[in-house]
Write a structure and sequence with these properties.
By secondary structure, the chain is an alpha+beta fold. It has 15 helices and 18 strands. Helix 3 crosses helix 14 and helix 5 packs antiparallel against helix 14.
Length: about 525
């Protein structure tokens, strides 16, 4: 146990709360009981899916069922659109039903937030979801800044403030995204997404953010990963978690001092970033109400501040021996125990993409025992399509987390590929990583796997720009034309479909490894 409550603290809490009242913060490194129940049910679905797509003669025993995670990157509208296309293809080849976890960063969480509005989304027609999203992703950005919408934003943020929350510019960004992604007011919450996983019918979603620590003199900055599931919100580094519905309430010494209503999904969709469109319209107000809103925002913090559920907890004396902490490095904030997050009144949450633009960290927890990670990267770094994995490998090395590494610099000098396989053969605890970068390699020549482009129109359709500053998919573009939207969906789908056998080969290998391990 990393956290410990000293006797003085326990005596103090007994003055505030009735004796024997359980803590509202779960202090444990293990996954919660609800997730364990989910895994039992999901294993049945995964076993059936693997039996079908791998042509197995008999159903897998539970202990032989591998855990597969789909990990998506950030990238704004590009990531949202690309992820929908990739998930459609994974569904078409039967791998989506074999997936246990889906994690997202930034734009990919927008797609996840949309999907998990439906209790059985992975069993339904993905084309209808993609079509509905197209209506939102192709409308004018200006529609988010009409006088009516600005009035709505102002009223909603005032309402949130009156409910006891800290209000920031990021709340405005979340409401703008609500309009651009959903096109309507969304009142659902993260905990309500339990309906989409309680029967094991969909992969478990894990949304991410990072808590940015204030930079200490002479120290490097530190970003602490925070995960959000329908069951819990917490930080694995500290082994501290709270129920999703309690996140945002005010805590002290592990107890809720002031309970706040659970925030709705839009307020969790965008933390610590500001869409470029906001800059223009806030600096040059077009209406009186916008001017008022602009003044309101200037007096609010830019980061997303939330009450710290760990506040007041004391660190165990030998915390620095735990590999979650980089206390061995003198220039790291972890080396200063009196500066660790439990002392802070609030968390400073920022988009995970500012640190590592792909959400591997949550599924690398040993308690989740993930065997295969399918990385879907829509990160805009055309010259360094493996950078998200290189950063992940460096993060894992510092914390002694099993993860395959490679000579990424040399690989990026070679011709680009649609898929890369990374494996650490010396460490069986490391997952096999199947990495799909955003590239146009064979799609320019084939409209479908094995079907060549022949007509002038077909050849032109294959000329998809995913690498230059003139690309319609550059991060600065918040919405797309209908044609560009459909093209990105098709490219993302194609890259998965064209490498179906590679994915299945990895799954067969992992299955053999698990079977062999059990026999030993």
């Amino acid at each position: 146990m990393l956290f410990g409550l000293c006797s003085a603290s326990l005596a103090f809490t007994s003055d505030i709360h009735s004796e024997g009242e359980p803590l509202a913060v779960r202090l444990d490194f293990d996954i919660p009981p609800q997730e364990k129940e989910y895994l039992k049910k999901r294993k049945v679905v995964v076993a059936q899916a693997l039996q079908k797509i791998l042509g197995l003669g008999s159903q897998l025993e539970p202990e032989k069922v591998p855990t597969i995670a789909v990990v998506a990157s950030g990238g704004g509208t590009r990531a949202m659109t690309g992820l929908l296309g990739s998930l459609r293809a994974l569904k078409d080849i039967g791998v989506l039903d074999a997936t246990t976890y889906i994690t997202g960063v930034s734009g990919s969480t927008w797609a996840m937030s949309t999907l998990y509005q439906e209790a059985n989304w992975s069993q339904e027609d993905m084309d209808s979801v993609i079509s509905a999203a197209k209506k939102q992703m192709t409308k004018s950005t200006l529609s988010a800044f009409s006088p009516e919408k600005l009035q709505y934003y102002s009223e909603e943020m005032t309402k949130k403030g009156n409910e006891g929350y800290i209000v920031s510019l990021i709340d405005m960004a979340g409401l703008v995204l609500e309009h651009l992604v959903f096109g309507r007011e969304v009142t659902s919450t993260l905990s309500e997404q339990q309906l989409a996983v309680d029967e094991g019918q969909n992969p478990l979603p894990i949304y991410t953010a990072v808590n940015m620590k204030d930079k200490l003199l002479g120290c490097e900055s530190e970003a602490e990963w925070c995960e959000f599931t329908p069951y819990e919100v917490g930080m694995q580094k500290y082994g501290a978690f709270v129920k999703s519905e309690d996140f945002g309430s005010e805590f002290f010494l592990g107890h809720i001092m002031k309970r706040h209503k659970e925030v709705r999904i839009p307020y969790l969709m965008e933390v610590g970033t500001r869409p470029s469109t906001l800059d223009t319209y806030l600096i040059n107000p077009l209406t009186d109400i916008q001017s008022i809103l602009s003044d309101f925002m200037k007096n609010r913090p830019v980061i997303a501040e939330m009450y710290n559920f760990m506040r007041g907890l004391f660190m165990h004396l030998d915390y620095n021996k735990n590999s979650n902490f980089v206390a061995w490095k003198e220039t790291h904030p972890d080396a200063f125990p009196n500066q660790l997050t439990p002392k802070d009144p609030t968390l400073s949450l920022v988009d995970s993409g500012h640190v590592i633009n792909i959400g591997c960290a949550p599924v690398l927890r040993p308690e989740r025992d993930v065997d295969v990670i399918i990385c879907l990267s829509y990160s805009w770094d055309p010259e360094h399509i493996l950078r998200v994995l290189e950063k992940t490998a460096a993060y894992c090395k510092d914390r002694n987390i099993p993860f395959p590494s490679a000579d990424f610099a040399s690989l990026e000098k070679e011709p680009q590929k649609e898929v890369y396989i990374f494996e650490d053969k010396e460490n069986p605890k490391a997952p096999i990583v199947v990495h799909f970068p955003l590239v146009n390699v064979t799609y320019k020549h084939f409209k479908h796997p094995g079907v060549k482009r022949e007509t002038e129109e077909e050849i032109k359709a294959g000329e998809v720009d995913v690498s230059t500053s003139e690309s319609p998919y550059a991060t600065k573009n918040v919405t797309y034309s209908e044609e560009d939207y459909e093209t990105l969906v098709e490219l993302a789908s194609y890259n998965i479909l064209n490498n179906k056998e590679t994915i299945l080969e990895v799954l067969r290998k992992v299955l053999e490894m698990k079977t062999s391990k059990i026999k030993k």
